[in-house]
Amino acid sequence: MMHASQTQIATTITNAGGNAAGTKRPRRATLDNPASQLGRTYLALSAASRWLMLHELAGEIRGRFDKMDSEAAISARLRDLRRHHGLRVESRRRGDSAAHEYRLQRLTPAKAQPDMLEALQ
Question: How far is it, in rounded angstroms, from Cα 57 to Cα 74?
Fold first, then answer.
């Protein structure tokens, strides 16, 4: 038999992360969603035809989406693109400056390779 405090703990654990109260869960940020910082950062960087510094990327986001994302937030989203989404975000120093500039490496689709099992038969 459970005591009242054990019942409360069990209820809390069961409802953790759930939708028992009928509230909406936040939509997961996707790369094509301009409503999220991650989406805006990806869309602005993928449309760029040149290397961009953080303040230039912030300007692109402000111009395209009318949002004021900070350079620190954009830097964190660039890290997210690398670590959690497997994209190649290149970085290099601009000239003799300590400042970095960024670009999204365009990956070409892999060529179809022949099926090795068919080749052996």
Answer: 8
